[in-house]
């Protein structure tokens, strides 16, 4: 079992990673970090791997296809994940009527609970 989180350099991505680390430590489980652009994200990935090592959390890197929602759900299914962690951005009053399409797909298709966090 593991916790699945995407590698995003946004504030929302960092909030998701922080929450994933907290959950992994509390549950004594590993994190699967999904990377959609491994060649472009090499420096960010190295930083995340160091952060996870420093936190004492075991991790694996999963190369994605470019569609983060699909990649997170697929990784959760393949790894029998116990949790997916995603970051949500703040929305305008009109935008609050509609959840982001990627987040909505993850919530509807996830084979396990989804923890949504805000920065």
UniProtKB/TrEMBL annotation:
<dbReference type="InterPro" id="IPR006016">
    <property type="entry name" value="UspA"/>
</dbReference>
<protein>
    <recommendedName>
        <fullName>UspA domain-containing protein</fullName>
    </recommendedName>
</protein>
<feature type="domain" description="UspA">
    <location>
        <begin position="41"/>
        <end position="118"/>
    </location>
</feature>
<comment type="similarity">
    <text>Belongs to the universal stress protein A family.</text>
</comment>
<dbReference type="InterPro" id="IPR014729">
    <property type="entry name" value="Rossmann-like_a/b/a_fold"/>
</dbReference>
<dbReference type="Pfam" id="PF00582">
    <property type="entry name" value="Usp"/>
</dbReference>
<dbReference type="InterPro" id="IPR006015">
    <property type="entry name" value="Universal_stress_UspA"/>
</dbReference>
